[in-house]
Amino acid sequence: MTELMPAEGVFSLIWLLIALPLAGAAVLLFGGRRTNAWGPYLGILTVSASAVLGWIMLVAMMGNSPEERTFDQTLFTWVSVGDFQANMAFQLDQLSMVFVLLITTVGGLIHIYSLGYMSHDRDRRKFFGFLNLFVGAMLILVLANNYLLLYVGWEGVGLASYLLIGFWQYKPSAAAAAKKAFVINRVGDVGLSLAIMLMFITFGSISFQDVFGSAGEASEGTLNAIGLLLLLAAAGKSAQFPLQAWLLDAMEGPTPVSALIHAATMVTAGVYLIARSNAIFNLAEIAALTVVIVGVVTMFMGAIIGSAKDDIKKSLAGSTMSQIGYMITAVGLGPVGYVFGIFHLLTHGVFKAGLFLGAGSVMHGMNDNVNMRRYGAIRTVMFITFITFAAGWLSIMGIPPFSGFWSKDEIIHAAFEQNTLTGILLIIGAGITGFYMTRMFIMTFLGKARWEEDVHPHESPKVMTIPLIILALGSVFLGMALLFWGNIETWLEPVVGYESKEAPISTGVAIALGLLAVGIGVLIAYLQYQRKPIPVEAPHGSWLTRAAREELYGNQVNDALVVTPTLVAAKAATAVDEKGIDGVVNGSAAFVGALSGRLRRYQTGFARSYALSMVGGAVLVILALILVGAS
Amino acid sequence: MNPENYIILSAILFTIGSLGVLIRRNAIVVFMSVELMLNAANLAFVAFARINGNLDGQAVAFFVMVVAAAEVVVGLAIIVTIFRTRRSASIDEPNLLKY
User: Fold this and answer.
1) A598 at the B interface (CB within 8 A)?
2) Residue A211 lies in a domain
3) A379 and A277 in one domain?
4) What is the DSSP string of B31-72?
């Protein structure tokens, strides 16, 4: 266990990392139209300032010895009820550090890119406000030192994603996609809140320090329960099976949002949660095994969906699902995989942001058309986008020496160390990755132009291409930089632990097998899409293609298992309310009304009949008194 | 003389009064019948005071007289007003206050 260092010097500004983007969001969202002119620049400024601060902290952190790199800053006691205590406290260690840099740097580049991409949008200021909120919430998530504060960031990310996916809320499809993302995320959130409650019951505390310190004292059943609940939470946020359905619909948002969700924030939260809770997963074997299974299943689902979609953004979204599946698999493998899961998350964050922004740049030039069947030959008109996209393409396939190669190869190797079957499955997944990314690349940039008639593609403005170039450089060099020049295993080892086991195959063989699989994928895509003309209308396709176009029937399954039963139950409840409860209320009102309608007939207006009823009543009272007195 | 005879007389007077209220149509006569009932009650009070040998009944009789005097003022005023507007003292004709 590393000791906690007090946050002094530059580290006393940990809170400022979060406060800057949140303040930006507050100014932009509460400031109203007055901030329209300069709002977007303020949004970029706050995130960039956070990024600069983050890099300064990285340099300062590298000056300390590895055991003295965990900094703890307690601002104030937030909730204190009986034994329960939650502090507004932040913890910056090696793991949160890399996340802070990824979020603020890639997030900052996406902000700058949005300046060009959203330049024609009326609500540009609001968009930047939401982006700032997204970054701020994600920073709370990764900097919290207890699970409750993490939960705040977790929910903030959910809210911001809802606002951004539904940013063009006048489109019914966007509004529905935002709702869907929010509702499915809610399922995962239930898992997280139950996990937090269970931790408090078991350990009497929810701070990372206490929970991880006493994890060994809990029974294995409890730890497995906590682990599975955390996995449910991670599946919701990271779009893992069975909560994956929202991710493809989330493409309804503006493209920079997709880049932000898929690269720097949101879907990485699940990987972070599991890597952060490594002390629990190390002791919970069933939960860890389930994590691996979920990861591998999602990896295949995403890859298959990505292979069939003609919509460039949805194809990329399938690819994100698949790559996050790799990361989840890696962190499920235990100490052999945590560091590589995070490593792949970093490289993926960079190259996937580049790919998404590249796709956005293509769409920008093609009148927002997303159908790759109407693309083709874009290399001739958008050279910078073409080159940067190529860097991302080679990186995600894992071609040496691009970034993705280093991280993916390490995950595959780690999988072989733990379990040969997982390793083989991951290699097959790498092959499918080669297929769908090559298919996308050929359909978009190579071949003959299949453009619609009124389209005049042009290169995007500099404010969009410069972030693309920076991200492309990251796609090329980040992997090497982290593995050779800075050693990512040693860096993360004090937080998440690292051990190397004997693998049944050597590293060289693993690399060769991986490259062979990718080569086969690329070859199939080349024969299918480069050698043959691509029809403008999608062909009927095999059953697998049709299933993949339908997102492997995830929506249909959700409809059948959840939505329809819920609707039926709601209709039944409405019927009980309308017929039963309303019937009793309305019926008694009608009864009283009818009765009084009869009774008022006795108000005849004749004084003498009233006098008669009084006399009659008096006689009855007297008779009653006599009877009572007599007995 | 046996005081119970006064009770019997009181009952007879009360019955005559109540029958007058129920049967007669002229408001003045109805009103007089009401007075007859009140005085029958007074007679019963006084007779019971005599039988029981204390003054409680006498005191109540005085209260009834005072209340009856006040009631006469209000009641006659109403009857006079109704007569002025409708030119009739029939108790059956003013029947607007009904369902």
Assistant:
1) no
2) yes
3) no
4) HHHHHHHHHHHHHHHHHHHHHHTSSHHHHHHHHHHHHHHHHH
Rounded to two decimals, what is the model's pTM?
0.78
Helices (H), A309-419: 312-332, 338-365, 383-397, 403-418
Alpha carbons A602 and A481: distance in angstroms, whole number: 99
Contact call for B22 and A601, based on CB within 8 A: no
Test A608 with B91 for CB contact under 8 angstroms.
yes
Q: Are residues A275 and A297 in the same domain?
A: no
Looking at chain A from residue 438 to 497, which residues have their Cβ under 8 Å from any Cβ of chain B? none
Name the pairing type of β-strands A84-92 and A5-6: unpaired
* Residue A249 · residue A180 · CB < 8 Å: yes
Asked if A128 and A114 count as a contact pair (C-beta separation under 8 A), the reply is yes
What number is the ipTM of this complex?
Answer: 0.86
Same domain, A152 and A268: yes
Q: Which of A266, A283, A300 is the last residue of a domain?
A: A283
Q: How many domains does chain A have?
A: 4
User: Are A356 and A227 within one domain?
Assistant: no
**B5: exposed, middle or buried (Cβ count in 10 Å: 0-12, 13-18, 19+):** exposed
B contact test, residue of A596, A603, A604, A608 with most B CBs within 10 A? A608
Count other Cβ atoms within 10 Å, centred on residue A206.
Answer: 22
Residue with tokens 């055991």: A67
Identity of the residue in A600, A601, A607 whose CB atom sits nearest the CB atom of B91: A607
Determine, yes or no, domain membership for A597: no
Query: Which is nearest to A132 in space by CA: A146, A111, A152, A118?
Result: A111
Q: Residue B45 corresponds to which tokens in the numbers above?
A: 């009070």
pLDDT digits (tens, 9 = 90+) for A509-520: 888 888 888 899
Helix, strand or coil, per DSSP, at residue A73 = strand
| Closest CA of chain B from A619, distance in Å | 12
Q: Are A356 and A520 in contact (CB under 8 A)?
A: no
Closest residue to B96, CB basis, from A600, A605, A608: A605
Are A386 and A355 in a shared domain?
Answer: yes
Q: How far apart are CA A231 and CA A243, in angstroms?
A: 11
Query: Do A206 and A277 meet the contact criterion of CB atoms below 8 Å apart?
Result: no
For residue A101, how many other CB atoms are within 10 A of its CB?
17
A568-603 pLDDT, tens digit per residue, is 999 999 999 988 899 999 999 999 999 999 988 888
Same domain, A304 and A250: no
* Position A33 in a domain: yes
- Is B99–A606 a contact, with Cβ atoms under 8 angstroms apart? no
Specify whether A444 is located in the same domain as A490.
Answer: yes
Residues A142-191 pLDDT 10s: 999 889 999 999 999 999 999 988 888 888 888 888 888 898 888 889 99
In a domain, A499, yes or no: yes
**Eight-class DSSP state of A69:** -
Task: List the domain range (segments joined by +) for residue A445.
Answer: 284-536
Mark whether A269 and A416 lie in a shared domain: no
